[in-house]
Amino acid sequence: QEKTLSRMKTTMNFFHEKLIKFKKLKFVGDVRYIGMVGAIELVEDKKTKKPFSFEKQIGQKIYKEGLKRKIILRPLGNIIYLYLPLSIKKKELDFILKNAYDIIYNFK
Asked: What's residue 48's pLDDT?
C-alpha cells in the first residue's frame, strides 16, 4: 500500500509539473489542478484574459481534435478539463498531456 501511495504521489507531481507548462501557450489564460483533475482556461487574449465568444465553440473543437488522437478532453465552455484515474501510468499520462499540449499549441 505504501508503494502505491508513493507511485500516486510521483504521478500527481508529474501531472502538475507538465500541466503548468500549458501556461506558456498563446491561448491559455490560466491552469488549475487538484489531485488528478486539471483545468486549462482558453482565452482569446492572454493579456486581458478576454474569453472566446461562446459561438466559436473552442472547447468543442479541441474536444473533437482530442478524439481523433484517442484522448478525451472535457470542454466546459472555454475550459478544458482533464479527469484522470488514480491508476494511470506515467507513460499514459505523458501521452495525454503531449497530445493535449499539441492540440492547444496548434489551435487556430
From this structure: 94
Place of cell 498563446: 26
Listed in order, strand segments (DSSP E) in the chain are 28-34, 37-45, 50-51, 74-76, 79-83
In 3-state terms the chain splits into helix, strand, coil percentages (rounded to 5) of 50, 25, 25
Please tell me the total number of residues recorded for the chain in this structure: 108
pTM of the full structure: 0.91
Q: Tell me which residue has cell 468543442.
A: 60
**Spans of the chain, pLDDT less than 50:** none
Who's near 12: CB < 8 A, 6+ residues apart? 35, 36
pLDDT computed for residue 4 by the predictor: 80
Q: Quick one: which of 84, 95, 70 has its CA closest to 39?
A: 84
Other Cβ atoms less than 10 A from the Cβ of 13: the count is: 10
| 14-24 burial: b if 16+ Cβ within 10 Å, else e | ebeebbeebee
